[in-house]
Each structure stands twice: as structure tokens, then as C-alpha cells.
Amino acid sequence: MREIPRWGRVTANANEHLIQMRRGRVIRSGQGLSCFKWPWDSVAVVPTSIAKLSFAADQVTTEKVGVEVRGLAVYRIADPLVAFRMIDVERSTLTEILRDMFVGATRRIVSRLTLDECITHRKDRVAEALMGEIRPILAGEGSALDENASGWGVVLDTIEIQDVRVLSAEVFARLQAPFRERLALEALVAEDRVRQERARVEAERQRAEDELARERLEAELARARRKAEADRERAAIELEAKREAGEADAALVRAERGAYEDLTEARLREVMITETMPEIARAFRGSFDRVHVTSTNADDVFGFLSAGLDHVLALGRHTK
User: What pLDDT digit, counting tens, does each position of 142-174 carry?
Assistant: First the structure.
């Protein structure tokens, strides 16, 4: 609370409650009120805004393990007509009193708890227990006219346990050991799973590559088989064509020979003079300048012509 002048006008802020007393009785009170104070009056301006305090308490648990509990409390003056009779000019005195109360209550509560309860159940085992002890003391249940008024007129809104620290480094390390070992084990398991998954993916990739290579090989073999079959068919066709051509040539030769065999003597003489003799001359042109036939025997002449005819036909076949 702030200091009030001996006399003059006193005005309370919006977050303050003004109380004016004369001859031991309250004659005026209200939030943000203004009054004129005479020297014989008493005026109090009580702040009603919320305030916070931090506290820390050291205590051993049921396992004889020392811990430090740090917390935060938020409170406010809910009933100024009750609170102004116990609070001095500075509200810091109320804060110090409340801090000492929280430290004492915290020590009593922690001494009945295990280390695990302090760490893992700090909200329901510590904070709620503190609220259960301090709130009834602070609750303003009286009135200005009640001489047996009880309570402080202060409301405790919340208590938060911010930290529970194990004071022994060795104990804290041992507490963390199972957790660290479990994390290490989980890391090893995860690493093994990653390695197995990597191996599975690699095997699947290798199988896919092998399958692709096999398909490519089968495709190459299929193309090679088709090419070999096509080559065989083409060779067979060419062989058949050559055979048919040879048979045709043989048939032509036979036809030519048969045609000359069927000639009459008069026709043979005509062919000899008009066709055979010029062919014989052209055939022997490179060896002889002239060819004279001196025989008068027709059989000899025809024999000679027959031999020349065979020679000409042979030349014709070689030319083809």
C-alpha cells in the first residue's frame, strides 16, 4: 500500500480499493474511490491487482534423497476490508510471509513423498497439497463489522511447481541411467531396423536389376532366334531358286539338243550354212585366220559340224 498524507484529498486508482475510517468505523470504501481526509481520519488504499511470488524449498524424500522444489504462486487481495487491518504500507511484507509459508508447507509435503512422486506427480502431489494447506488460511471469510472475523482476505489463484531438482549428482546420474540405457537400446534397435530395411531395399533393387537383365537377355535370344530362322528361310529360298534355275538350264540344254536331233538333213545343211559355220568361224577366230572344209564326204562334214555345234553350245553355257 502507498503512504497516505495527513490531510487532503486522496484518490485511489482503478486497481485500488479506498477505505476511509473515522472514530474506528468505516465511513466510506470502494474501488477507485476518492475522499477528503481530515487529520482525525484514517484512510487506507489497498491494491487489488494480482501478485506473484517465487519460492524454493530443500527437503529429503522418504528414501532420504535430497531435492529442491521451486514453485510459483499467484494471489490477490479479494476482500480489502479484511486485508487492510493486517497488511502494512508495503505489500512486500505479505509476499515474504506467504513465501515462508510455502517453503514450510512444501517441506512437510515432500518429506512424506517418494522421489518418483515428487518428480512425476508434482502437480497433484505437491501443488494441490499446497493449495489445500494455504488456501483456507488466506480465504477472507469475515466482514468489517464482525469482531471475530477470520482469514486474511487474500485469495490464492494458483500454485505451479516449476522444477524438482535432485541435489545429489550421483543419485541423479543413477536415476538417468535406466533412461539412458533404454534410449541406447532403442537406438540400437532402430539402427538394426534401418540396416535390415536398407538390406531389403538393396535386395529388391538387385532382384529388379536381375529381372531386367534376364528380360533383356531373353529379348536378345528371341531376336537371335528370329534372325537365324529368317537366315535359314532365306538360304532355303536361295537354294531352291538355284536348284530351279539349274533345272531350267538343264531343261533348256536338253531342249536345244533335242531340237537339233529332230532336224532333217536338208534343214541341218541349212542350219550348218547359215548358223553353225558363222559360229564356228567366230569361235576359231582367235586361233585360225581361215577354216577350209575340203572333205567331200557328207558324213565327215556333218560329223565335223556336230563337233563344232557341241563346242559352240559349250561356249554358250560358259558365257551364261
Answer: 444 545 456 788 888 888 988 888 877 776 666
Contacts 24+ apart (CB under 8 A), 35-42: 35/9, 35/10, 36/8, 36/9, 36/10, 37/4, 37/5, 37/6, 37/7, 37/8, 37/9, 37/10, 38/7, 39/6, 39/7, 41/7
What span, in angstroms and rounded, lies between the C-alpha atoms of 219 and 227? 12
Cell 541423479, located at residue: 172
DSSP 38: P
**Kind and range of the H or E run holding 100:** helix 92-110
At the top level of CATH, the class of 50-167 is alpha beta
pTM: predicted TM-score of the whole model, two decimal places: 0.51
Looking at residue 47, what is its pLDDT?
85
pLDDT digits (tens, 9 = 90+) for 240-256: 888 888 788 777 767 76
The residues pairing with 154 across neighbouring beta strands, listed in sequence order, are 77
Spatial separation of the C-alpha atoms in residues 68 and 118, rounded to whole Å: 10
Q: For cell 529381372, name the residue.
A: 211
- The DSSP H or E segment spanning 118 is helix 115-120
d(CA 132, CA 120): 19
Give domain limits for the chain. 1-48, 50-167, 169-260, 263-320
